[in-house]
Design brief:
Helices cover 82% and strands 0% of the residues. It is mainly alpha-helical. The protein is globular.
Length: 211
């Protein structure tokens, strides 16, 4: 069971870390301007900025009825399918010769925290994906929830660090590799989305049988 929640955390974190977004764009632009050594500490930003997001989300989720899990699963699955579609479009339209525009702002961990707090993805991810999974795993055994969080953030940090190092040391190979990873993340998101929807339908079926 531990490996199950670890795999869920790793899979979702990899897909989230590869997805183009405000935080990833910030990392890339700062790497191109200042190098990987000054940018790498900023990968810890999600660990700090996600704390208030996670607390707020879990507080809300614990107060909703049990059968609301179905709607969360369904919404989470559809959200993941939407992200998969966006990733596929990004992969399909990705220009290997495109240049990344520079962003204004300080190259610091603080800057990355602000960017992530203003990014809607962590709020959606915690309310639709991570929150329900954490509560589900914790209800079975607290270690399951801890394993999920550990796998998620460890993978997320390493994925973002890999992006930073990639753009610093392999700028010519970087766009080609990023396009491959975009395609892979689209596939992971699609499979994870279908799996979430399937879990929601299974939960609803069991709930109806019990009641």
């Amino acid at each position: 069971m531990l490996s199950y929640y670890l795999l869920l955390g790793i899979s979702y974190a990899f897909a989230a870390g590869i997805q183009p977004g405000p935080l990833q764009t910030y990392f890339i632009s700062q790497t191109l301007k200042n190098g990987w050594k000054k940018t790498l500490p900023a990968t810890l930003a999600p660990l700090i900025s996600d704390i208030p997001i996670a607390i707020l989300t879990l507080f809300i989720l614990k107060s909703v009825p049990e059968n609301f899990t179905f709607f969360l699963r369904l919404a989470g699955g559809l959200f993941l399918l939407y992200l998969a579609y966006k990733a596929f479009k990004s992969w399909n339209k990705y220009d290997l010769n495109q240049e990344t525009s520079e962003l204004s702002g300080k190259q610091t961990l603080y800057g990355a925290i602000v960017v992530n707090l203003l990014n809607p993805n962590p709020y959606l991810g915690w309310s639709l994906i991570m929150g329900p999974l954490l509560l589900e795993g914790w209800k079975i055994a607290p270690l399951n929830g801890i394993t999920l969080i550990f796998g998620f953030y460890l993978t997320l940090i390493f994925t973002m660090a890999g992006t930073i190092i990639l753009f610093d040391f392999a700028r010519r190979l970087g766009p080609k590799i990023i396009k491959i990873l975009l395609g892979l993340s689209a596939l992971v998101l699609f499979l994870f989305g279908i799996y979430q929807i399937w879990l929601g339908v299974e939960f609803l079926t069991q709930f109806m049988v019990k009641h």
